[in-house]
Amino acid sequence: MSKKRVAYYYDGDVGAFTYGLGHPMKPHRIRMTHDLVSAYDMLDKMHVLRPKRATPETMTAFHTDEYIHFLNRVTPETAEELTYHGTRFLMGEDNPAFEGVFEFCSISAGGSISAAQRITCGAADIAINWAGGLHHAKKREASGFCYINDIVLGILELLRTYPRVLYIDIDCHHGDGVEEAFYTTDRVMTCSFHKFGEYFPGTGTQEDRGRDKGRNYAVNVPLKDGITDEAFKNVFEPVIAKILEVFRPSAVVLQCGADSLAGDKLGCFNLTMQGHAHCVQFLRQQNIPLILLGGGGYTTKNVARTWTYETACALGIENEIDQNLPWNEYFEWFGPRYRLEVPENNMEDLNVKDGSLDKVRATALQQLSQIPCAPSVGMHDVPRQSVGQHLGFEQADGEEGDEDGVADDLDRRLAQHARFVYKLQETTGASDESEDERYDSDGSYPRRRKRMSIMTNRYIDADPGKGPPRRRFFQSAARWDPTYGRVLVGKESVLGLGMRGGLAAMMETGGRRTPGGDVNMEEDRDWEDGVSM
Ligand code: V1D
Ligand code: CA
User: Fold this and answer.
1) The pTM is what?
2) Which of 91, 359, 513, 519 is the most exposed place for a label (fewest CB within 10 A)?
């Protein structure tokens, strides 16, 4: 099994938050997982990073300003008033306004955004954020223990670089928030495996398949109680294999909700730790950039065991680690066997009993057969390499990155590069000819203005009437964003333009401004010219 560069995001503060007494969601399980990962000596086998916390502005890439403003100031004391007596923003007992809720969200979302950046800059093959995976959060309200949809924010980050992203959700609950966010686009395929029938949130039938351009790009696999490893594998593998074949994602985000494990307090499946982790192993071997996120999981010792084992799977060392748990701070929680295992129980598998699993699989495969071929954003080529990689800015393997260093450092270096290129344009008559040929024969600067592309480092003829239509430098792939004080490159500019047209509109235009606007990636010859990225 090939070695992979794994980035692992963890904030030591995350385990201290509490949803309140009697609430099943326990952020402490993230800390237990981390402790076990550490006890197994896995930390020095991967890049351990403390994620930058997501800012309110970052969160509004998906959520409404009004909701983020609310979340940023609500406290247990003001909740009643700010939710208009429980009628807005929060969902009753499921989503209490607990102490520090915004900080908790900024850690969770910051981890998934950082993970995505680590993948797009080419510094990791697999990025992990066990504090993420909060798939129920909606654009303007919390739902099902989730307040901020870190997954949507992470995928938006991936879409700045990649044409297509696959989202897979093995949490026992339907991944409704993520599905809804990308329901009308063919750039994100969502696939959720979940219990369906008198179960939260009540969505996720096989009739729900996406709309408009997104028709058939939402895949749902509704299941019944008691599904075992073998039955799950028999639906997961063929459905995901088919998706990989027809959709050809550039990156995969796997939500590893652990409430699908046997014996979960809220779940009703019968998966063992191995059966759950098989999904991670299956995706790892596809050699597609992968993000692993947390999610549900309410029998905390089993969550810690499984996410620890899945961290080992990401590293490719799952066969080398001891099944007897090493000593760790929470050792006594894992008795009486103190083993790295989640065994199945004797519940009946209702999926196999009535043959419904075969029907569900057949329906999913039939849906996928209707997808013609991998879609693209318009017909132009989209870089397969991140801008950072292309310009040679990617972090070298083994280079230690602290905190959120990679993305910031990349931004800094891209900005520096952009300023260098921009300066070149202003001070020289840039040309792709040799050094000597930059000047007219009389020694003056040439009248034909040429500009350098930040994407290709090649000069473009910017002279009107000659060659391709004249384009301004910052219309092509990069522009300076004064708000964030950094260069926005390629589809990054999508987000810089704001989400006023809505997520779907942004997806439809593939990151271009709406008609009439002056940024149109499709027209950009730098991209069209088939510069192999
Ligand atoms: F049992 C509880 C005790 C206290 C507070 C809430 C719950 C609870 C259990 N199950 N709440 C639920 C589900 N909510 C309802 C609604 C409340 N009724 C009015 C209907 O049934 C929510 C289950 C959320 C599951 C979240 C998740 O596992 O999918 C997840 N994934 O990522 C993060 C969380
Ligand atoms: Ca699910």
Assistant:
1) 0.77
2) 359
